Amino acid sequence: MSTDDKVRPTKLKFKGDKPKKKRKREDGEEGSSSRRRRKEDDESPETWVLPENANEIRGPTFIMHPSDPSPICITYDSTRGRIVLHSVEKDKDGAQEPVSILERTPTEVSQVWVTTRVAGATTINLRTGTGDGKFLSCDKHGLVSADREARGPQEEWTPVVFPDGMVAFQNVYEKYLAVDEVAGGTIALRGDSEEVGFAERFWVKIQSKFKREANEEERKKEGVMDDTTVDETTTNKLYQAWGAGRSVISVEDKKELKRARKEGRLAEALLDRRAKLKSDRFC
């Protein structure tokens, strides 16, 4: 192919214009939602991640508290049928390097709770992953237990996700789940805190596939809401009118409207005449 036969650019260029340099799109210029979506796609479905909003808390759930001197996780002892606050420091080998609490993952099934929710509800249920599947509940006195196989109001929790990623759990009595030191220096769960402080804030981890599922549902909901029908009459009234909603129409349309009005008046007069004759006939 000769030089003259090559395809020439169609964009006009003027003398004196400086050529613009093409630059690659930086990663920081991409939307946060697209970056997050790409990251979720790259993660393994079983990867333990932090939820970003309350709707993402579902499926297998790992709940920890940054207690001092050792972080703890909420576990269920199926043998004794009660809740146990287990030190996560006991799970590591003595020669192992210290691990941040945010890098912790469950090491046994008793540390995992199964989060379920009714579609569209803001409350969740926390069921044990071992045994017969008992629900985490709290009575009006703040006593927390896991000995019920059926769910009711006392088994409902409202998760509150804070900007730092930590989560608080509010019960049906509008009190918060908390870690409390009881007699003998042992630590137990209570559900009668009025305010959220250090004792009421937990680190929660869920599996990546369930977080992705929650985000997909949100995107579908947004898509349905955006798919609105267009009302032709309202649209024309909005975009083709002046003054107090006076529609802009052509001369031909005006003639048609005038003729239609005249025919309508004639039809009404004819109907009135027929009705009057009919009524005179029966009188």
Automatic annotation (TrEMBL):
It comes from the Eukaryota. One of its GO terms (molecular function) is actin filament binding. It comes from Wolfiporia cocos (strain MD-104). One of its GO terms (cellular component) is nucleolus. It is found in: Nucleus, Nucleolus. Belongs to the FRG1 family. Its main location: nucleus. This is Actin-bundling protein. Residues 9-24 have a biased composition (Basic residues).
